[in-house]
Amino acid sequence: MLTIAAALARARAGGVDRLDAQLLLTHLTGHPRTWLLAHDDALLEPAQATAFEALLARRAAGEPLAYLVGQREFHGLALDVGPAVLVPRPDTETLVDWGLALLAAGPLAGATRPAVVDLGTGSGAIALALKNGCPRAEVWAVERSAAALAVARANAGRLGLDVHFAAGDWWDALPPAAGAPAFDLVVSNPPYIAPDDPHLAALAHEPRDALVAGADGLADIARIAADAPSRMTRGGWLLFEHGWTQAEAVARILAGAGFESIATRADIEGRPRCTGGCLSGSSRT
């Protein structure tokens, strides 16, 4: 028989963080962490103990906690996640906050129904957070992975957020026949890691095609930016999440594509994480 205290001790011995172990126990027992702390002598049921041991082994092997419990909080929304999608990260909330700020101030604030698209939506995190934060916006979400798109659609349905989904590769998913508008705001957290980046080892359980882009990690950003002017309104904004060493390169890509007022915003740890620009003197063709 295994008590809560003994289970946490086993987790510690196996190299699993105490908070992670508590969250696994919360997932298995249905009790909040406060209950676990106050009842560390409570016994786990045999099935719970067996499941806990299996989850500990997976967590010790590096599998993300969000995959083990099936959910991750992002910008106030509880999102279902799994191996088909990247785990939503707090750094990406920087992109959402910037997008919502643009929708709330300046020219976009006066738009009755501003058109927004999230390119490479994954779990739907960015698109759903933008729709939740700005209900008047008409939000589209594009994803080339059928498995990821199914996760995003399910999250939207469960949360009751009305988002248009399109399957395909970046802008190709939104041909004129799809009825997509010219967009006032384009946001994207595309693959931006180079294939030889040492950080990939820590991300081995997440979908590689959502992480790696070209030889230098910038191929998808360049492609999205090059095609964006023909799909956006004058004065519209294009915002990217990127690696913390890529801000200058992304700014050059945006400038080369005709964007102005280019700026970079830092993530929660103060690192340059998102770069965007405003489109001037161009319209959808």
How would you characterize this protein structure?
- This protein has 285 residues and is an alpha/beta fold.
- It has helices at 4-13, 18-29, 33-38, 46-60, 65-69, 93-104, 125-133, 146-159, 219-227, 247-256; strands at 71-74, 77-80, 115-119, 138-143, 164-167, 183-188, 232-241, 259-266, 272-279.
- Strand 3 (115-119), helix 7 (125-133) and strand 4 form a beta-alpha-beta unit.
- Helix 1 packs across helix 2 (18-29) and helix 6 (93-104) packs parallel to helix 7.
- The mean pLDDT is 92.
Write the topology of this structure.
Layout: H1 4-13, H2 18-29, H3 33-38, H4 46-60, H5 65-69, E1 71-74, E2 77-80, H6 93-104, E3 115-119, H7 125-133, E4 138-143, H8 146-159, E5 164-167, E6 183-188, H9 219-227, E7 232-241, H10 247-256, E8 259-266, E9 272-279
Parallel strand pairs: 3-4, 3-6, 4-5, 6-7
Antiparallel strand pairs: 1-2, 7-9, 8-9
Helix pairs in contact: 1-2, 2-4, 6-7, 9-10
